[in-house]
Specification:
This protein has about 130 residues and is mainly alpha-helical. The chain has one domain. The protein contains four helices and two strands; from the N terminus they run ααββαα. The protein has a two-stranded parallel sheet. Helix 1 crosses helix 4 and helix 3 packs antiparallel against helix 4. The longest helix has 27 residues. It starts with about 20 loop residues before the first helix and ends with a helix. The model has no long low-confidence stretch (mean pLDDT about 90).
Length: about 130
């Protein structure tokens, strides 16, 4: 006779432990800083309103929207894939804005920083998706 036949319920599925993301966090935050500076700088040449809106999107949305378990306080809960998309938007904004704004010698390190962030973020992204 098995335990299931005896009426035992299977143990509840627990979420996997959050991966150590100290190094990915430093790379991600460094790239976000570039996005926060370069994107409004690029857009200000076209419209101050677009520049201000870019800051709302790049800083405001990730501050309000987060995946439960990823941050200590969650104002508006979103699934893990939404957090991943926000990170990709920040990284993309940093890369594109740096190439539009700065010379090659400055844009190449930003691109490499963003690429390193994408590579090191993979364990966190797998964890975020597993929470859905």
């Amino acid at each position: 006779m098995t335990d299931a036949a005896a009426g035992d319920t299977p143990p509840e599925r627990t979420a996997p432990a959050r991966p150590d993301d100290r190094i990915p966090s430093v790379l991600r935050f460094s790239t976000e800083l570039v996005a926060w500076v370069a994107t409004p700088w690029v857009l200000a040449g076209h419209s101050w309103l677009l520049a201000a809106l870019s800051l709302v999107v790049l800083i405001g949305l990730p501050a309000v929207l987060s995946t439960p378990g990823d941050k200590n306080s969650v104002l508006v809960a979103v699934p893990g894939w939404a957090t991943i998309l926000m990170v990709l938007a920040e990284l993309g904004a940093a890369v594109v804005s740096s190439w539009l704004l700065w010379p090659v010698w400055a844009a190449v390190p930003v691109t490499l920083l963003a690429a390193a962030a994408v590579v090191t973020e993979q364990p966190r992204w797998r964890w975020l998706v597993s929470l859905d």
